[in-house]
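Working notes for the structural subgroup meeting. M.R. asked for a predicted model of this chain before we commit to crystallization trials. I am recording the input and output together here so anyone reviewing the notebook later can reproduce the run.

Input as submitted:
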Amino acid sequence: MKIRIAERIDLPAIVNIYNQAISAQATAALELVAVEDRQAWFDDHPSEKYPIIVAESDGSILGYLHLSAYRPGRSALQSTAEVSYFVDYEHHNQGVASELLETCIRMCPSLEINTIFAILLENNAASIHLLKKYKFEQWAHLPGVAEIGGMKVGQVYLGRKINQG
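Returned structure, recorded in token form:
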């Protein structure tokens, strides 16, 4: 498995993986997206500050991770970023998310990011477990803020300081 910065040619695979998560109700997004819908999003992730990275094997994208600005335009928060990751469902439980997350954590100092956090649905036990493995702690819980499939679901914020090792 190779981890690298995403290229425009990867966007169809990235969109497919994201749509898998939407279909599985594993994210708060409810409508499937098209490649055209995500082109601006892709372009808004400059690799020198908020990269999109992909896990690739034999020419196939297995998963991706991206960093996003937290409250853009507020310079006091410029060293904090949100991390999101998605793995192709055929490659779950194969270490893809771990490789992506480890690479992200290693990249953060050179990106001048000192704090990262993830926002997850509270029923996403696998991702919560993975993040805690990498020293993320629960920083917030927003009970019942999402409605998915007619059910109220909370969100949790898990974060960590990069300099804590």
